[in-house]
Amino acid sequence: MKQARRREVIRTGTTVEQMVRAIADMIVTGTLLPGEKLDEISLASRFEVSRTPVREALRELGAMGLVGREPNRSAVVTNVTETHLHSMFEAMAELEGICARLSAERMTVDERRALELDHRGSMRLVHSGAEEEYAAHNTEFHTRLYRGAHNDHVFEMVTQTRARLAPFRRAQFRLPGRLAKSYEEHDQIVMAIMRADAVAAGQAAYSHVAIVSDASAVFATAGE
Amino acid sequence: MKQARRREVIRTGTTVEQMVRAIADMIVTGTLLPGEKLDEISLASRFEVSRTPVREALRELGAMGLVGREPNRSAVVTNVTETHLHSMFEAMAELEGICARLSAERMTVDERRALELDHRGSMRLVHSGAEEEYAAHNTEFHTRLYRGAHNDHVFEMVTQTRARLAPFRRAQFRLPGRLAKSYEEHDQIVMAIMRADAVAAGQAAYSHVAIVSDASAVFATAGE
DNA sequence: GGAACGGCATCTGTATGCAAATTGTAAGGT
DNA sequence: ACCTTACAATTTGCATACAGATGCCGTTCC
């Protein structure tokens, strides 16, 4: 049941850009597991290019924090210690808190309306227990918060942090009852934003992520 | 009087790592100005290497946000719009606020003592009006806050943001009276941390950066 | 005089080749 | 039986080579 849904990565830009997107997608979606080795020759033949663009892609992914590199050693999908993982979750909670707080202050009426509509629409996914669909909605919902802060740099940081965290929070909605809880927490955030209560929105978003952090376990890695 | 102080970049690691450090340093310290072109051939001959490691270094710097790249076009030192610059300053204030707040909660006694000592020691720099020295102390001071938060990911984000902001806040302490004000603001932060007042520390650090943001102007770029 | 076109120079994007470093393996010694 | 050492195979790091893209500049045509 682990079929990869739309594995066609966007085909624009240079070869390197395509590879970065493709590999990042594989890491984020779990096709590549933390600890897995990424040797240049295999990737080169897999993408039917030479090692040169592969190396550049790996370097960029390294700078993004998605793969680890050390000299004269193969690149590996980043695998983090438990304390570092905890630091990422905490940072994520802070960032989401900032986004929600700023969203409460700055979202346009259109953005607020769209957020609320999107949120209300997800209720049926909760009732039907559609985990995958709800996960997609959840991503969309949070992205709205990130955009609503109207701060490019914060958006960049929170987006990148989310990507780096993705490999370790895949089973988020597999826990029984988590879907309904998630909806409730979203509800708190949305209501606070609708009444422009920045502090409440920030706190609600912070707790929301902190709870997800608790719900997420550390998963098996590919390394040894 | 614009002498480059210790231009010897650490000589360890691969060629690419050395170049990344060297170029990043030049951008952060202002040897390379925003908008300046970085063509691969010049850099290659300048560092006496081939274009291959140069390209990898530029790609990494691009991922870090220090240089901008688009296909078939030379890399350029990142130049930002005013609104984007503002977003970076705001993000920086938020991050510093987080660091100070967490520092107030988590710093060890040794860290607190070192912070206070370092801070008190900078008073003589204020009195003698030693701008350059105070700038160095200032960097050290803030780094202590970043470390004091005991959160690797936050540390990474705040460090990277500071580097990206550096090209645009160079004249920070040239404004008359800014040194003394900076010291006072640091004092507020230190006192809050010493008495473990997380909220006060966070707010003091936020305002401190916000003020610096106001004090910093947008500088001339090398582009056209 | 100005705009459009074409060729040349320059630079980037990718492929290929070679040297150095690392890892796995097998022989030899304790 | 285990550890050490040496050698071979594999892989990375960097240099070089070539193809494609971009931009400049002079020429030509209106």
Spans where pLDDT lies below 50 across 5 or more residues of chain A: 1-8
Q: Class by helix and strand content of chain A? A: mainly alpha
Average residue-wise pLDDT of chain A: 90
CATH topology of the largest domain in chain A: Four Helix Bundle (Hemerythrin (Met), subunit A)
Describe the structure.
The structure is a homodimer of 224-residue chains. By secondary structure, chain A is mainly α. The first copy, chain A, folds into two domains: 15-77, Orthogonal Bundle (Arc Repressor Mutant, subunit A), CATH 1.10.10; 82-215, Four Helix Bundle (Hemerythrin (Met), subunit A) (Up-down Bundle), CATH 1.20.120.530. The first copy, chain A, is 66% helix and 3% strand. Chain A has helices at 15-29, 40-47, 51-64, 82-106, 109-121, 123-128, 131-148, 152-165, 178-194, 198-215, and strands at 37-38, 67-68, 75-77. Chain A has a three-stranded antiparallel sheet with strand order 1-3-2. In chain A, a hairpin with a 6-residue loop joins strand 2 and strand 3. The first copy, chain A, starts with 14 loop residues before the first helix and ends in a 9-residue tail after the last helix. The A-B interface holds A 13-14, 16, 52, 55-56, 59-60, 62-65, 71, 83-84, 87-88, 90-91, 94, 98, 151-154, 156-157, 161 and B 13-14, 16-17, 52, 55-56, 59-60, 62-65, 71, 83-84, 87-88, 90-91, 94, 98, 151-154, 156-157, 161. The structure holds a DNA duplex (30 and 30 nucleotides).
